[in-house]
Amino acid sequence: MKTFAEYVEDIKEKEGLTTDYAVAKLLLIDPKKMGYMLSGKRYPPPVTPYVIADILGLDSREVCACLAYEQTKDELQREYLKSVFFRHSRRVAALFLAITMCAGATSSEKSLASNFMTNNMTESQIMRTNGRNDT
C-alpha cells in the first residue's frame, strides 16, 4: 500500500515537478504544512485522496484506503483497510481485463470476459449493469 510521500513522488514524476511546494499547491495543501505531512507529523486534509486520485488517474477509494491505512495505528483497523484496498483493486483489475478482452475479442471471448466480470461484482452492481434496480 502506498504512502502519502510515495503519491507525492508519483505526482512529481507525472507532472514534471521538482518541489514539494509545487505538489502542495496541486493538492490544495498549505505548502508550509507539506513537510510535516511528508514526515508523518500531520495528516493530509480530507480532500487530498480525491485530488491525488484525479491527478494520477486512480480510483479515489484506493487512495483513501492507502492514506487511512498509513494514519491508523490500530492493527485490526489496518487489516480491514488493507482488505478494502485489495478487494477494490481486484474489481478494478477484473473490469480492466474485461474491457481489454472485449475491445478486439470474438463472441466467445466476450462471453468469457463478461462471466469473469460478473463473478467479481456484487449483486447490486450486477443488477445496475443489467438495467434492473429491484431495491
Summarize the structure in words:
- α2 (20-26) packs across α3, α5 (60-71) runs antiparallel to α6 and α6 packs antiparallel against α7 (107-119).
- The chain is flat.
- It has helices spanning 4-15, 20-26, 31-38, 48-56, 60-71, 75-103, 107-119, 123-129.
- It is built from eight helices and no strands.
- The model is unreliable at 121-130 (pLDDT under 50).
- It is mainly α and 135 residues long.
List its traits:
135 residues; mainly alpha; 434 Repressor (Amino-terminal Domain); 2 domains; 8 helices; 0% strand
Write the layout of secondary structure elements.
Blueprint: H1 4-15, H2 20-26, H3 31-38, H4 48-56, H5 60-71, H6 75-103, H7 107-119, H8 123-129
Helix pairs in contact: 2-3, 4-5, 5-6, 6-7
Short description:
By secondary structure, the protein is mainly alpha-helical. The chain is built from eight helices and no strands.
Based on DSSP secondary structure assignment, what is the total number of beta strands?
0
* Strand composition percent: under 5%
CATH-defined architecture of the largest domain = Orthogonal Bundle
What is the total domain count? Answer: 2
Give the % helix.
Answer: over 70%
Mean pLDDT, to the nearest integer, reads 79
- N-to-C span: 35 Å
